Amino acid sequence: MTIVLVDQMAALALSLADRAYVIEGGRVMAEGTAREIADSPELADAYLGAG
């Protein structure tokens, strides 16, 4: 089943997802497993509010 989830609680959303896509301005900026996205320091700083 595919579900599109838009959420400001990225850690929660990634904990529930198998795959994740980071979309900015209508373009896919990154994609991968939820673990890959969550573990990426660059993506965490830029998009996930970690920095």
Overall body shape: globular
- What about the largest sheet? 2 strands, antiparallel
Poorly predicted runs are none
Number of strands: 2
Rg over CA atoms: 10 Å
Give the count of structural domains: 1
Q: What would you say this structure looks like, in words?
A:
The chain is of the alpha+beta class. The protein has one domain. The protein is 39% helix and 25% strand. It contains three helices and two strands. The chain has helices spanning 10-16, 34-39, 41-47, and strands at residues 19-24, 27-33. A two-stranded antiparallel sheet has the order 1-2. Strand 1 (19-24) and strand 2 (27-33) form a beta hairpin. The longest helix has 7 residues, at 10-16. It is globular and about 30 Å long. The termini are far apart. 2% of the residues are buried. Belongs to the ABC transporter superfamily. This is ABC transporter-like protein. It comes from Alloalcanivorax profundimaris. Keywords: Amino-acid transport, Transport.
Which SSEs are present, and which pair or pack?
Layout: H1 10-16, E1 19-24, E2 27-33, H2 34-39, H3 41-47
Antiparallel strand pairs: 1-2
